Model the fold of this input.
Amino acid sequence: MVPVLILIGVGVALAFYAISIYNSLKRKAILTDSAWADIDVQLKRRYDLIPNLLETVKGYASHERETLEAVIKARQQAIDVSGIANQAMAEGALSSALQKLMVVVERYPDLKANQNFMQFQEELASTENKIGFSRQHYNKTASQYNIAIEVFPANMIYGMFKFDPEKEFFELEEADQRVAPKVEF
Done:
């Protein structure tokens, strides 16, 4: 009788341990999805700011059509893309197009002094910072999830219950974005 009770006790303990691991993996998967949603919110805010910024620039620099069209095209591609790796690549192209736009703006002192432009530029810079922090948070939660599904005994629970596959990281694809900008006086 005692050995049966011990076996039942061990079985119950193992069941609770497996449930604990399952819940932990599920929690990490949900947190990773939530972190991706935070990036999505900030990207949407960025996409909404760009048309207003372009309209302001267009009034001063209408002959810079090629640069303005490049930003519009990059924005649309970033909106239309799906998948984390593709999103990162599209965001890199959009960031690059916006950097080129800011170089164009430097040629127009009246535009740089325009109150609307300054407000949009400040909002865009704030949004870029929020996107950066959201990317860091997402990559951290994705890393925690990826580690959790690889270690024993959680990998056994992962295999039995068909959790989401390993999460991709949101990484920069363009090498020039990894280099700090040069400042010359």
Residues 177-185 have pLDDT under 50 and may be disordered.
